[in-house]
Amino acid sequence: MxxxxxxxxxxxxxxxxxxxxxxxQFGTAICSPIPRDLNVAPQPSNLxxxxxxxxxxxxxxxxxxxxxxxxxxxxxxxxxxTASEARMTMFCCFPRKLRTTASPEKEVFDVRILERHPxxxxxxxxMDLSSHSKxxxxxxxxxxxxxxxxxxxGETATATNEAGETITIRDPPDLKNVxxxxxxxxxxxxxGVGTWHAPMVVLGRRRVDFVVVQHVNGVADExxxxxxxxxxxxxxxxxxxxxxxxxxxxxxxxxxx
Length: 257
Ligand SMILES: NC(=O)N[C@@H](O)C(=O)O
Hints:
This protein is mainly beta.
């Protein structure tokens, strides 16, 4: 069980659409650098500047942007000195349960735990998730919620562990500045090394499978640290629609590339 922080956060978050710019302090939001309807490989020099700059590849039939997101391994700084390896995992993420508030009737997601990987970054790439469904087309594509918190670097927080003992969490999450972002098919997300984040939250009617890329060394506390807390960090997902669909709220819900 994750240690429970003794602080009691109180915060209601309205999620923003995930963009490379607004997510930059937490990691990388990965989106295609080119429009969806560009179907003939252009000369890279005819494209707006992008970092990393693209080069032609695959017999000039592809534009290659590399690295599109870094792959970082800082396990050499870990206390145990245990060697790490690159690891690709699949997380099959089922839709989360939402809570409905009364007057106004809204759907909210309660964030109750954050975790971080102190020596590696971690990338979630959704599979089989379209970025294009229209409201009312019956497709109702799921989206995913990315919840992150800045790290209070050099600070400590007290928490209670499973045995009821008081323990110290170093570099704890800044619970006053948690942020929530709505991501959709066509986007992937890399949590920066040590970035506190909520376990993946899929919203919608069906499961989303993610390929997850990171480093691991098998030492539990070096691979993943957790901090739980009571009710208090709430993501406001807007008004509940007539048939359980979200009509309004995060218009984000239907954000398109
Ligand atoms: N982010 C997420 O859903 N889970 C993890 O970070 C994990 O490693 O378990």
